[in-house]
Structure formats: C-alpha cells, structure tokens
C-alpha cells in the first residue's frame, strides 16, 4: 500500500527543500539563516546545497515548482514572506500538483499501477471525490475514538445502551452516509471498549439524531451520545454550548427538528427518558475530533 502522501514526503519535500536551500544560498543567505527560514538543521542545509539529497527531476523541472520556489526565495530572503506564508503556498502547490491527474497524481499512479485500473468514474486524487470525502470522515472518527479511549473517566459517561461516535459526509442524506462504530462503544469493567474500526451505515440511532439536526439547519457533521445527568448539561452550557431538550418518545426526526428550530445554535440535545427509554445527552460538533474533545473536557 503506497499513499500519495508518501510521494509528497519522500520525493516532493526533499526536492523542494533542496531547490529552496540553493535559491536562498544564491541570494546570499548563510547556512544558518537558511536553516532558520526552512526550519531545518544546518547540516541538512549543507546536504541540500551540495546535492547530497536525491531529488526528483520531474518535480524539480516542473515550471510551476520553479516559479513558486523563485517567488518564495525572493520573499523569504527579503523578509516579505514569512515561513508560515511559504508553507501555505507550498500546501496549495501540493494540492494543485495532486489534483486532476497532475504531476504528483502521475507519480502516485506509477508507484501504484492498480490505481489506473480502477473504474473511470473514480479519481483518488480528486479532493472532491466521494472516496476522499469518505476517507476523511473515517479518519476523523478514528482520531476521535483515539481521544476517547485515552480520556480518563469516559467509560463512566457511557450509557447502558452504549455510546457511538459518528460523523457524516458533507452531503449526507441517510444512515449509509454516516460512519460510526459497529456494535457501539461499551463500558467493560471500567474501560471504554471500541469493538472494531468505524464503518459507514452501522449506526442507526445516533446517526438519525445527527441527520435530523442537519436537516433542520444545524451546522454540524458529528455526534456522540452519553448518559444523561442535569449536571452534565449544566457543565456543557458553562463551556459555551447551547442545549435543547427533545422528546424521544415521539418521532426522533420531528422532535429533534423542533428542538433545533427553537434553539438554532444548539450543540447539545438531551432527552430525559420515558417508559423503556434511557435518558441521554447528544453532543454535536463540526467533526468527530471536536466532539471527542468536548467529551474529554467532562471527564
């Protein structure tokens, strides 16, 4: 398995650093000054400047790469461009070279010929492709789960029905567009246990709450359910969240929708239970990591 990011790290990065180091040295900067500007060691600058680092000629000779290197060299040497601004410019360049079958995409497909055999409707390097969007969602959930697994006290917030951390694609319409943990997260002997890696279409309950909130205007893409306590709702409100109550004994979509319409900024939804219904809190957020961070703040 060979990711395009490996091309960026293994070939683009040493090439661009080598070009920038030489460009800045040609403008009269010392090795120490170049090291400070590029955020690398003087010994690394020496290797780049003396050609001791292998560069990719196709990247080095690309007109856009040479243009950006020259512009950044001019700006960095004069102090008109900060290292952070240069980093942003290079990030933009990477995305341009990866998209639309461009240079980095070509290098990746040469490293992984099987990509070229994939059905024509698919482009792994298209940042707007459904696969890339799905992978970003799964990555977000995995990172969120990692935060929760290391959060001391999270197990104590898991309700009897279990918790689930979910996130959805930008154009989510149904539960198949929502990724979560198959089988939910349970408290097993005081330890939050995630049974397996996140997948799409495995969360019925928390996914429906998230989708209902989105359909009624909530600007959120992730959610988790935890046990209900009035003190927890109060603590979340103190942290800046807006809370709204809904009645889960009614149709979830309608009751969540009514709650969001009454409190359009709500990121905490809760229901206090009923006959055969466990009381729960739902924390909503922009992505799974931010939701997990909110839960960690409660532990």
TrEMBL record:
Highest taxon of the lineage: Archaea
Residues of the HTH cro/C1-type domain: 27-48
CDD domains in the record: HTH_XRE
SUPFAM superfamilies documented for this protein: AraD/HMP-PK domain-like (SSF53639), lambda repressor-like DNA-binding domains (SSF47413)
SMART domains associated with the record: HTH_XRE
InterPro entries, sorted: Aldolase_II/adducin_N_sf, Cro/C1-type_HTH, Lambda_DNA-bd_dom_sf, ThiN
Pfam families xrefs: HTH_3, ThiN
GO molecular function, one term: DNA binding
Protein name: Helix-turn-helix domain-containing protein
Native source organism of the sequence: Natrinema halophilum
């Amino acid at each position: 398995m060979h990711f395009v990011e490996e091309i960026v790290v293994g070939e683009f990065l040493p090439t661009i650093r080598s070009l920038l180091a030489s460009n800045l040295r040609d403008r009269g900067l010392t090795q120490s000054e170049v090291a400070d500007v590029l955020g690398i060691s003087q010994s690394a600058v020496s290797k780049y400047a003396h050609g001791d680092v292998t560069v990719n000629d196709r990247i080095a000779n690309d007109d856009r790469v040479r243009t950006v290197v020259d512009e950044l060299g001019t700006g960095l040497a004069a102090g008109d461009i900060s290292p952070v601004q240069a980093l942003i410019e290079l990030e933009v360049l990477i995305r341009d070279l990866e998209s639309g079958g461009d240079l980095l995409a070509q290098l990746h497909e040469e490293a992984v010929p099987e990509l070229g055999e994939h059905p024509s409707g698919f482009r792994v390097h298209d940042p707007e492709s459904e696969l890339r969007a799905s992978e970003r969602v799964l990555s977000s959930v995995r990172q969120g789960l990692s935060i929760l697994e290391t959060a001391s006290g999270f197990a104590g917030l898991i309700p009897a029905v279990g918790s689930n951390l979910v996130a959805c694609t930008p154009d989510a319409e149904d539960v198949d567009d929502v990724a979560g943990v198959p089988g939910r997260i349970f408290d097993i002997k005081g330890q939050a246990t995630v049974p397996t890696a996140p997948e799409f279409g495995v969360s019925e309950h928390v996914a429906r709450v998230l989708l209902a909130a989105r359909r009624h205007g909530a600007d959120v893409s992730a959610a988790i359910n935890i046990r209900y306590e009035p003190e927890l709702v109060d603590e979340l409100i103190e942290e800046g969240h807006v809370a709204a109550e809904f009645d889960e004994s009614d149709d979830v979509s309608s009751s969540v929708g009514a709650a969001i319409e009454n409190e359009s900024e709500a990121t905490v939804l809760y229901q206090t239970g009923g006959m055969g219904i466990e009381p729960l809190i739902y924390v909503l957020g922009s992505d799974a990591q931010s939701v997990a961070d909110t839960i960690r703040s409660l532990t």
